[in-house]
Amino acid sequence: MVQIIDNLAISLLSKPFAVLYGPSGTGKTRAAIELASKINNTINTQRWFPIEADRNGNILNGDSTDFRNMVNENNGNYFTVRSNYGSTNASIEFCRTIEMNSVDADTFLSEERNNLEISAPVPFNIPCHKVIPIGSNWNDNKHLMGHINPFGPNNEYIYELTPFIELLILANHPTKRNIPFFAILDEMNLSHIEYYLSDILSVMEISEDSSNNLISFENLLLIQRNLQNRSGESEYYNFLLESVDNLIDENSGLPYSNNFFIIGTINIDETTQMLSNKVIDRAHLIKVESMLPSLALENSNYSSILTDQEMLNKFQEINEYKAEKQIENSFVTCYKELVEEYEITIEEWDWIIDLLDQIYVSLSQIEQEFGYRIIKEVATYLTIGLRYFGNSSEIKNLVNNVLNQKVFAKISGNRRTLEAIIEQLSSILTNYETGENDNYFANSLKRVNELRNKLRLRGQASFIS
Fold it and tell me: Which residue(s) pair with 58 in the sheet?
């Protein structure tokens, strides 16, 4: 069985939008945070302090609280000093004297008063995920995308940021473009998802075209103005400003970068909105099962086959692989990768396609057949999954996962509409000849039987209810 964390990672690498659903309290948000928390995103940043020193290295004006704190935190060692002459290493005693560590240190202290800048590496954690609770009144995209405020400082127009846009700016920093970032949209169906997410879903579909930005160049200039006003508040805002400055230097707006992933969590109850076909088509829908209390105590549901460093490496390696092979853009490319690179025989692939044909014919009777996008994403998921594990050992579980997450996800209706179709699907999955002793599609068959039971109890049902 593929653990939920690994399945979530594979799903996101296949498509940068996944939705976790299931009963309340099953740990959907926790699963999302567990994956995101495996990415260690601590960096060293530097803040430079201007000082003056005489010929003997006596510091003439280093009494600021921030300067003294920096010296104390680093025990007086490992500083970098720079001036018009270049840079060198140095140590500082009691915030009073500075000692250069290089042989040409005299060049830095050649005058009675020498203007220097001094700094030390400061560990600074860049958050690679944010949990964003969705409100029941989110009727437009400003809650995620931000908006223009005409009443900024000095009556200037500025662009008001949101946690979502801040996270996307971080993901576009030139030093972070190979680090995965995760926006966790918690209880995302408290409002109609299309009302606040449609622009993002559209750009996500064509993210390989860098001209399709979420925020225009003109609005990015307004964001720059906002961040310039806040740059003194913390290193966090300085880092955001660096990223925006770099995008502006590149003459770019704010793109949806390929290291940015959205994880949604939803409950299906009377307080929430049902998912539309547009959302279902564009996401991997992963059910988080409830579990026995005895199993919950083992806490094994949130484990992964990978260590934290291996998870980061896997995201980086597979993103590079996708870009090189253009794996998301062509069904034929996926087919070649599956058959030629991995241990999937042409016969195995042929019966997977034959199975999809049979399911398609069955669902077409109730006008719920799937389109080309779903076929392509099935192949992408299998290709990414095999690369994630490095072999074909999990192919059975991967096939079952992608059937549940993509192919069956849109099934919904009343007893009159679905009863005969459910029996057909059950028969296809039960009797399909794969050469396995056990039922190859046991997991998918279990989910179809759940749908049958709900249909009998309620008279109507949907696959993700």
Answer: 97
